[in-house]
Amino acid sequence: MGDLKYRRILLKLSGEALALDGGVGIDPLRAEAIAARVKNVHEMGVEVAIVIGAGNLWRGKQGLDRGMDRATADYMGMLATVMNAMALMDALERINVFTRVQSAIDMRSVAEPYIRRRAIRHLEKRRVVILSAGTGNPYFSTDTAAALRAMEIGADVLIKATKVDGVYDSDPKKNPAAIRFEHLTYIDVLNRRLGVMDSTAISLCMENNLPILVLSLWDPDGLERALRGEEVGTLVTS
Question: Domain spanning 8-237: which superfamily?
Answer without folding.
Answer: Acetylglutamate kinase-like (3.40.1160.10)
